[in-house]
Amino acid sequence: MERTPHILVVDDDREICSLVSQFLSKHGLRVSTARDGGEMMRALEVSRIDLVVLDLMLPGEDGLSLCRKLRAQGSIPVIMLTAMSEEIDRILGLEMGADDYLAKPFNPRELLARVRAVLRRVGALPAPTAEINAGGRILSFDGWRLDLAKRELRNRTGEIVLLSSGEFDLIQAFAERPQRVLTRDQLLDLARGRAAVLYDRSVDIQVMRLRRKIEQNPKDPQLIKTVRSGGYMFTPPVQVIGQD
Length: 244
What we know:
Layout: E1 6-10, H1 14-26, E2 30-34, H2 37-46, E3 51-55, H3 63-73, E4 78-83, H4 87-96, E5 100-104, H5 108-121, E6 138-141, E7 144-147, E8 152-154, H6 165-175, E9 181-182, H7 184-192, H8 200-214, E10 224-227, E11 231-234, E12 239-241
Helix pairs in contact: 6-7, 6-8
């Protein structure tokens, strides 16, 4: 029997926690709640959490700081809840490692759609049949190995490099289309699909984060090149090891 994905909602607004918890539970997800960073960390210690819905404005340590901590400790997906008008907060959330964001006030159905989309990307939910195409392939480039089935990236010494689900989707999009100029719109579509309404700036942020993890000198990138007025190009040749 497949394990029910476990969602942790971190928000000090009791009404929002109650509404989200009831709605997600009604649609087949297990939900726990936390009111602040301390409760969040305790929940993570005692439960296997598949995704964190994290409010930006919390008492004590704020959501951006907590998101940074989550990224330092592992790769649990994070959906950030932000104020409607604060675009800078959404940008900072993505820079800190959030996989997606949702502006308050929000429709619970939209949150459910985004939760499901992120869970599918990290393999915690089965993808629709048409989306299952990774098979057992491993993409090898410049000494790196990208395992599409396990959703793992290993560096030249064989160590696993922790990636958010958005970062993994982006490098997969690049590695499957090497030495081609990909526009931001193409990358949005390839890496995130139509489940999330994103914007051009988010691609630049994801590329910046990815460069920090795979480039020897992120300020002078050699693997992911910026193409003026075009987008980005993944420069190394890619070898496919194993087939579907």
